[in-house]
Amino acid sequence: MAGPAAGATMTPETGQQRSVYRSILIVGGGIAGITAAVEAAEAGYDVVIVEKEPYLGGRVVQLYKYFPKLCPPTCGMEINFRRIKDNPRVRFYTLAEVEQISGRPGNFDVTVRLRPRYVNDRCTACNACVAVCPAERPNAFNFGMGKTKAIYLAHEMAFPMKYAIDESACRLTECAQCVEVCDYGAIDLTMQPKTMTLKVGAVIIATGWKPYDASRIDNLGFGKHPDVITNVMMERLAAPNGPTKGKILRPSNGQEVQSAVFIQCAGSRDLNHLGYCSGICCLASLKEATYLRERNPDARAHIFYIDLRTPGTYQFFSQKVLKDDHITVTKGKVAKITEDPATRQLIVEAEDILSAEKTRLPVDLVVLASGMVSNLVDGKMAGVVAFDKDHFVVETPEGEGIFAAGCAKGPFDVATSVQDATAAAAQAIETIHSLGGGVHPPSDASPHGLRGQSPRPNAAE
Amino acid sequence: MATLIQPDLEFKREIIGLDAHDLSVCYQCGTCSAVCPISTADNPFPRKEMVWVQWGLKGRALGNSSIWMCHQCGTCNTYCPRDAKPANVMAALRDYSIAHYAVPRFMGRALSEPRYLPLLFAIPALVFLAILGWLGNLTALPRGQIVFSKFMPILYIEVAFMAAIGLSMVGAALGGVRYWKAMSRSAGVSSNGHNPRRHIVSTLLDILKHRKFRQCGEEPAGTRKTYKGHLHKTHLAVFWGFMGLVVTTTSVGIGIYAFGYLTPWPFWHPVKILGNVSGIVVIAAVTVFLWRRIVDQAKAGKSTYSDWLFLAILLLTTLTGFLCQWLRLADLRALAYPTYFVHLIFIFFLLVYIPYSKFAHIVYRTVAMLHAASSGARP
After folding, report:
1. Is residue B306 within 8 Å of residue B98, measured between CB atoms?
2. What pLDDT is attached to residue B194?
3. Quick one: how far is CA A248 from the chain centroid?
4. Which of residues 206-265 of A touch B (CB under 8 A)?
5. Residue of B30, B44, B219 with shortest CB distance to A333
6. CATH number attached to the domain at B9-101
7. Tens digits of residue pLDDT in A280-304
8. Do A9-115+194-208+375-460 and A212-372 share a fold?
9. Where does A212-372 sit in CATH, by number?
């Protein structure tokens, strides 16, 4: 096989060997990050997941059911967590954020900041600490619906199954009641933030998305009327581990919802908010309409849309849902929401475009199909990767060795994110491999995977 | 019933040219109709007007009361997710429809194209020059204390104006009837604006009270400010200022003919005070309108020729009126009489061309409100 011997390249300046690391950094431990991690690890590469939350699983674990098979997140996620646990090549850090990435393909220096969890690996999730904790915080996992104690388990299937302390709500050593009741010595209130450095050969940015701040849509009443919620909140309401244990109740008075309106494009396809179509919201609303119908056979769901976008074979799902005569649709965007002072119901106003008449519909609950925003919207990773105007990652030649996966690149559904993450893992492997850091056949090179052998071992076979 | 759609793309191009450049990006979500504070359940606007113009459906776009029911609060522009500026399209349709329904048609064109401007000034100028020539006042200005009726006797002015305004009122009536018929045609026979007489008084009261303008600012859909928030107050000021001037002029006429109370009247006279105050109010309101048209250009777009023309004529009519008064008091004969001549030309332009300039909104908006009220399309 002709070609330059590139197992260890020579830098022209020094003539020294340049190391090629065969480990991969994965920024973000959601469905895309986890997928990329297990795919690369199972192909023989060391991976490090850096996740800012105290648990892995990202947005998917917040859903009640997810596409394409409408399973609960426990379904797919347990398999993934098992693959992580069983594979020594996967390391992960929670409450961790990447601060800096420098270097070149094959050889990146990464600085990671680790926030203190205040709970160590001895935690058995016995819940004794929660019973005595006097402080509360809004339940972030449930999008602010309900509260947890300052020491908490993010959710029932959290992985790792370890409690964490929210330091913004906790007085730490000034209180320390939890320390006294913990029989395992699992709580350490003196933990300090740490910084660590990693050497990796490639990077996958899988930072994902967050829901658009619906309170910025000033005419749709989110934050003003408690019964106006977002689609992600609806997932939590329907989820058995959610704030209402799966009952779909009106936030204002706790009564069962008899009628709900779903407002599509709440923030998406709107130059005042997000210029793009978030892609998933039409299906999400159709799916959430079925949640309501499952719980309450008398309930009615009504979807206001501009275009009901259910691409590909998702069309069949849409057709199936719309066969239910309690789920109806109107072409027209709701642009005004008021409250009926007598009945306390919400009145949504839209023009029914097919009949050219204005409708005013009184309902119990309004669900805003709020769109997806890149988690990098505040400029994180600037200088590391290139962005489009909406802060989704655009892969460019300058970003060689650094790839993006899933919703860091755009508003994707789970299936697309998973495919994209697999592709990103392959790209990362290819980068390392082409620089001589491949793992097939196994090498006896340095501990961090440096190879000094043939650059294309497979081709030589 | 099958309908043959005949798109008139030239119409669409002309509307776009009237500062409605963004109408093609409209994707028909209806946000505009839903946030509109005054569009009604059975006749929401301006979403349907957007698609009618996009498709070149001239008859439907022009034969609808909506274009004049809209009072241009700008809420639709503020909330439009595509920045298609529906309010600009409604303004353009109104602009276009004035020329479209004009009788005679040429006058509609004359008021919407700048090249006819010299002609429009030449008509009153020639009429008044002829009168002055007949009286022999072209070669020598009247001597002694300045009295404008020595220069141009009231009777001559009355005759000239009555004749011209009479003709223009016929034009206005014919234009209004054409618009009424077009609305009835598109609404169908069943809702053919029956029994409009029953609604005349309530419609006029709505106009006097500016009920629609007030509604524009009530029950907003959200918290965003529109650039037209000032409209209710400013229009109320210019409307009542103008009414004050109409009352002043009428009172002066009655004073002269019924009581022989010749002009100029003293400053302390209530009618004189009313005239001066009204004039100041009109100038102030028109100044606000002009100022906002300049500073709001980024959000509201550039205004059209007919917008500027109407405001300019109204302002210049009032300003030259004040100028005549000051020059008379300053006893500057050589300036006072020619300024009075110019003032008369502006008055002629303002009043005689009513059915064809932007001032025609007093005709068409009234007709539209009456039609909407009598066909049940009323809140």
Report:
1. yes
2. 67
3. 23
4. 218-220, 265
5. B30
6. 1.10.1060.10
7. 999 999 999 999 999 999 999 999 9
8. yes
9. 3.50.50.60
